[in-house]
Amino acid sequence: MTKRDPEGRRRKIVEAAGQLIAEVGVAGLTHRLVAARAGVPLGATTYYFTSLDDLSAAALRHLTEQTTAELDAWAAALDTSADVPATLAGLMADYLTDRGQALLDTELYVAAARRPELRPLAKEWGDRLTGIIAARADPAAARAAVVFLDGVLVHALARDEPLDLPELTASLSKLLSG
Amino acid sequence: MTKRDPEGRRRKIVEAAGQLIAEVGVAGLTHRLVAARAGVPLGATTYYFTSLDDLSAAALRHLTEQTTAELDAWAAALDTSADVPATLAGLMADYLTDRGQALLDTELYVAAARRPELRPLAKEWGDRLTGIIAARADPAAARAAVVFLDGVLVHALARDEPLDLPELTASLSKLLSG
DNA sequence: GCCGATTCTGTACGCTTGTACATGTACGGG
DNA sequence: CCCGTACATGTACAAGCGTACAGAATCGGC
Domain HTH tetR-type, which positions (chains A, B) (predicted)? Predict the structure, then answer.
């Protein structure tokens, strides 16, 4: 038997599940896959999570916490920015660099579409970003910008070439003006 | 043995798969589920489609053909419209009324993100709409509007309340202007 | 040192899955 | 009428699945 470490174990399992969701999707998640990735026996995943839904929900919750932390960086960058649309476009382009992260967030959206209990997660994520942008723009415009950025996200994933940066900046400028 | 009808059978299977993708997602699709929905024996689905990937690809292709047909109606409406943003917003709001259809299109996006062979499908769909809007607006602005509408789609599905119509119209106006 | 509670883990069960395939049936050309 | 070919279908099989659980190991409180 290995050393006891309930919290560490739980965390390792959740992190492994997060990685795997990016790779195979929420629907492709299995106890065995997670256990292998986390380096724990199969029984451990069922001991800490009563069902697969529990496990995926925990992983997605963990993801939103990470994303929320990253949003603080966005807030800081936007606070000190002279050109909000350009800064926002740059942050988004940077974010899309990490395809795994982008896939994860998309998985959250899709999962939320089908599992109502996950909607608060998706909502919180978007609301947070909306709030950050609203500090530098009109609230309705901020909402529109977030919707647009979600579109940029799915567009970037489903196509080979992403929207180019100047166009992104121009669109955000239009949405955030007036 | 029932009467022979290869093409009809194939079509029934594809349609059943389409329905099911809306209900359980691409990843939730199984031969047996499709066979039951289509009212055909299990062997029929494996006879017409060599693998599940083949089957889901065919179903998604069928879906894009349907959507393409609907886009013709959008083109007609926009051609005769005095207020392009308002008309576009109305069409989109109407489209979102059918949650199953919206879920299907989202599934296509997500599937395309993970399966490169499906990307042409997603691309064609978006390009078509872009072309239609570009007839009444600047091409870059049309691209931006399509990206925005994709955002509206995922936003509507992942949340309980969709973006309201006036905001949608206002955002499209901004994106399509100048 | 002892003990109840918690953590750990290997194994087992019943079920569903994708796919293959042998056998049966309809049909169009000769 | 006959026969090769395409279509139809029930069944079988190995693999993977979620989950349950008995028993071993570890720990903190006393």
Answer: 7-67
